[in-house]
Amino acid sequence: MRVADGTSAVVTGAAGGIGAAVAQRLLERGASVTLSDLDAERLAATASALEAEHPGRVAHRAGDAADEAYLRELFATAEGLAGPVGLFVANAGIFRGFGLEADDAAWESSWDVNVMAHVRAARLLVPQWLERGEGCFAVTASAAGLLTQLGLPTYAVTKHAAVGFAEWLAATYGDRGVQVAALCPMGVRTPLVDQAEATQDEQARLGMRSVTEAGAVLEPLEVADSLLTAIDEGRFLALPHAEVGTMHARKAADPDRWIAGMQRLRRSLD
Fold first, then answer.
1. Where are the domains positioned within the chain?
2. What are the residues facing 33 on neighbouring strands?
3. The one catalytic residue among 155, 165, 173, 258
4. Fewest Cβ atoms nearer than 10 Å: which of 54, 86, 125, 150?
5. What gap in Å lies between CA 159 and CA 155, rounded to an integer?
6. What topology is assigned to 8-242 in CATH?
7. What DSSP element (H or E) covers 235?
8. What residue spans of the chain are helical by DSSP H?
9. What is the mean pLDDT of the chain?
């Protein structure tokens, strides 16, 4: 699929960071974009700035991307703007629950937003795409979904699940007109990174150091470009940090050696 004029796209977690950058790049290509985020004030400001540059092609609706009733309203808003949704970017995510002490509430909210939000959106969109013979479901899964995330078990586990769900979608529907892409960056200059850098929680700081010291911290627009290139080329994985692919291959080839390497990294960061 190549995103072009007339594409009706929805991007969640779009008040800033990767989501806002993806929305910007989609609009520059001629798509119409409906933005979603839980933070209504920031979302409205981002949508207003994008609308000023691309009048008539931006809509927004604040709400919880894990809530099915809200998703129905969001997709109706997108359809009112530019017709049936052709591209959905499941970018909303949370970074919550540090170390083994993470409580059940952190696990439940992480699972709901980082995984079940994708499942609920797919239930609504995939049947329509099968009827039309085309559609694209993109997931922001993080390198944590291919590797792991020191310090944050909730994030590591749910991002693995997000990749797993995307793989299942691709295997089940990818030859029936439904394209699936998984975006798996390491460090990106987003509010999540800023939040983790500011915390006093040692597990959170360990997790963030493991990301920022493993490779370059990219700008959101660089990451958005990587995702759209993968979609254009029909690739499943979008890897803004090419080294993630190498790490993933090494992990698969020798898990014990890879785990030993992660243990050495943890000790060095401690």
1. 8-242
2. 9, 58
3. 155
4. 54
5. 6
6. Rossmann fold (3.40.50)
7. none
8. 17-28, 40-53, 68-82, 104-111, 117-132, 153-173, 191-198, 202-212, 220-233, 243-253, 255-269
9. 93
- The answer, yes or no, to whether residue 197 has pLDDT greater than 80, is no
* Short-list 89, 86, 85, CA closest to 140: 89
Measured CA distances, 121 to 71, 116, 149, 188, 206 (Å): 7, 8, 26, 25, 33
Q: How confident is the model at residue 236 (pLDDT cuts 50, 70, 90)?
A: very high
Tokens linked to 1? 């699929």
Q: How far apart are the first and last CA of the chain?
A: 44
In sequence order, which residues have a C-beta less than 8 Å from that of residue 34 and are 6 or more positions away? 8, 9, 10, 11, 58, 59, 60, 61, 74, 77, 78, 81
d(CA 3, CA 20): 16
Tell me the three state secondary structure of residue 100: coil
Q: Which two tokens stand for residue 217?
A: 């911290």
3-state secondary structure of 255: helix
At residue 206 the predicted structure's pLDDT band, cuts being 50, 70 and 90, is low
Q: How confident is the model at residue 54 (pLDDT cuts 50, 70, 90)?
A: very high
Task: Characterize 12-22 residue by residue with b for buried, 16 or more Cβ atoms within 10 angstroms of its Cβ, and e for exposed.
Answer: bbbbbbbbbbb
> Could you tell me which of 128, 153, 152, 155 has the C-alpha nearest to residue 140?
155
- 155 is known as an active-site residue: yes
Q: Whole-prediction pTM value? A: 0.92
Please tell me the distance from the alpha carbon of residue 41 to that of residue 59, in angstroms, as a whole number: 14
Query: 68: which 2 tokens?
Result: 């099915």
Are 136 and 123 a contacting pair, CB within 8 Å? no
**Cβ-contact 14, 87 below 8 angstroms:** no
